[in-house]
Design a protein that fits this description.
Blueprint lengths: L5 E6 L3 H11 L5 E5 L5 H6 L1 H20 L13 H26 L2 E4 L2 E3 L4 E4 L2 E10 L3 E3 L13 H4 L8 E5 L3 H12 L3 E5 L13 H11 L3 E3 L4 E6 L4 E5 L4 E4 L1 E4 L3 E3 L6 H4 L22 E3 L10 H15 L15 E3 L5 E5 L2 H6 L4 E8 L13 E8 L5 E7 L3 H13 L4 H6 L39
Parallel strand pairs: 1-2, 1-6, 2-3, 6-16, 8-9, 8-14, 9-10
Antiparallel strand pairs: 4-5, 5-6, 7-15, 11-12, 12-13, 17-18, 18-21, 19-20, 20-21
Length: 470
């Protein structure tokens, strides 16, 4: 398009949008970025960062509970929700300013307002129309709504970060990472938490050992989990809520939170005006270069409905910009090798294929699994257990997946993700000398595969593995 206002117009200033805008501008492109909310998107404002800060606060409660066994005599600790939220808000504002500074230094023109496509090259924002050679949609996702009676009385994860006070009793509906993370946070801050799960296991898209094991650990922390149920109705009373489940049971609570997933944020973007196709789940259809069916328009991040993780969105953004700028690239994301963590208590870390997926793809596999009590938990006799698991191709000895439930699981799995990227073999794990005594060393000391007669995913939870003692 000749005489366009910009070479690239980015819609959405979340992680993907900001990275794409800066990446293109730093390479000489004329770039504009439109955003109607605070800079940083979900991750900075209502996702990864604030949620991790709340998770840290809840973990400190665990530390206080363990400290006496290690000789620390403390008076009863107290917790103030208002202080935590005020400090969290201050940090988020700081990050918003950091993003603004980064964009300014890169020469990106920031346009404040809700953007809407006019056609394949024009975008309307706040009553003004801009033209661009290429357009990148990076509008992310939003919490999935509900339509049952009284659902308007429930909050989502968005509102959870801004509660004026933290109620005593909380019901959470959901089984994914957001649900179990907030259940852990609220329980760790001393609240009574009930988790309602429609199916038979939490984290159903993770390895089949993860959900059942984590559920047992959550119950140890006082969280009530009700499987195969959900809400039919919420009724608001003078001082509390009454919840009716699908099987007719009544629950009384002070707060209801819906954490039933996220959906692509594609509403009111003018996609139909530009001729962009959506998949049945509402995500934008793209090709291998992140180009939509309209040659001048690309899309990345949660809005394309692939893997909803900030680092994935960043990687997609950089690859898309290379194609937008017409620079040859051989880079492609292997979505099978993406590591992720769930900041539940205890944490979950995972990378590579699950046992189910490996079997489904025809691999003859060997499973190495260990469950044990960490050394840190021995003096206080804490009930928390750790689970580690490797999924190995029995013919090539290549490690296809690594999965963990336990303290610092995300940090440990990050290193293993590099190894999987390099096509690590189980023999490489066996030949690696561990760091003793650590949790991570268990990954290099598991020598005996689970017997084929053992049912897949049914860990022998009565088995006591070594507790990292020599």
């Amino acid at each position: 398009m000749a005489n366009a206002d910009f070479d690239l117009f980015v819609i959405g200033a979340g992680s993907a949008g900001v990275r794409a805008a800066r990446f293109a501008a730093d390479r000489g492109a004329r770039v504009a970025l439109a955003e109607s909310g605070p800079l940083g998107g979900t991750c900075v404002n209502a996702g990864c960062i604030p949620k991790r800060l709340l998770s840290y606060a809840a973990e400190l409660g665990d530390d206080f509970a363990l400290c006496r066994a290690y000789g620390w005599g403390l008076d009863s600790p107290s917790f103030d929700w208002a202080t935590l939220i005020a400090n969290k808000d201050a940090e988020i504002r700081r990050l918003n300013e950091v993003y603004a500074g980064l964009l300014k230094r890169s020469g990106v023109s920031v346009v404040h307002g809700r953007a809407k496509l006019v056609d394949a090259h024009r975008i309307a924002v706040a009553g003004k129309t801009y033209s661009a050679r290429s357009i990148l949609i990076a509008t992310g996702g939003k919490p999935q709504g509900a339509t049952f009676a009284g659902s308007e009385f429930a909050i989502t994860s968005n509102e959870a970060f801004h509660l004026p006070e933290l109620p005593k009793r909380i019901v959470i509906v959901g089984a994914g990472y957001i649900a179990v993370e907030f259940a852990s946070i609220f329980a760790g801050l001393g609240r009574e938490v009930t988790l309602l799960v429609r199916g038979e296991r939490i984290l159903k898209n993770f390895d089949l050992d993860i959900g059942p094991f984590l559920a047992r650990e959550l119950v140890k922390r006082g969280i009530t989990i009700r499987f195969k149920t959900s809400l039919r109705e919420i009724t608001r009373g003078p001082a509390e809520f009454s919840c009716e489940t699908l099987d007719g049971e009544r629950l009384t609570t002070d707060l209801v939170m819906l954490a039933t997933g996220r959906v692509p944020n594609t509403a009111d973007l003018g996609l139909e005006s530009a001729g962009i196709d959506l998949r049945p789940d509402g995500s934008i259809a793209i090709d291998a270069t992140y180009r939509t069916g309209v040659p001048s328009i690309f899309a990345v991040g949660d809005v394309i409905g692939r893997v909803q993780l900030t680092p994935v969105a960043l990687a997609e953004a950089m690859i898309a910009v290379e194609h937008i700028l017409g620079r040859s690239t051989q880079r492609a994301i292997n979505y099978d090798e993406i590591a992720t963590a769930v900041f539940s208590h205890p944490n979950v870390g995972t990378v590579g294929l699950t046992e189910e997926l490996a079997r489904g793809r025809g691999h003859k596999i060997s499973i190495f699994r260990s469950e044990f009590t960490s050394l840190r938990n021995t003096l206080p006799h804490a009930p928390e257990r750790t689970l580690m698991k490797l999924v190995v191709d029995a013919q090539s000895d290549r490690v296809l997946g690594a999965h963990m439930v336990g303290a610092n699981a995300g940090d440990i799995i990050q290193g293993i993700a590099v190894a999987l990227r390099c096509k690590v073999r189980k023999a490489d794990f066996d030949e690696t000398i561990g760091i003793h005594p650590t949790l991570a060393e268990e990954f290099v000391t598991m020598r005996e595969a689970v017997k084929e007669t053992d049912s897949p995913g049914a860990a022998d939870l009565a088995h006591e593995a070594p507790t990292q003692m020599p």
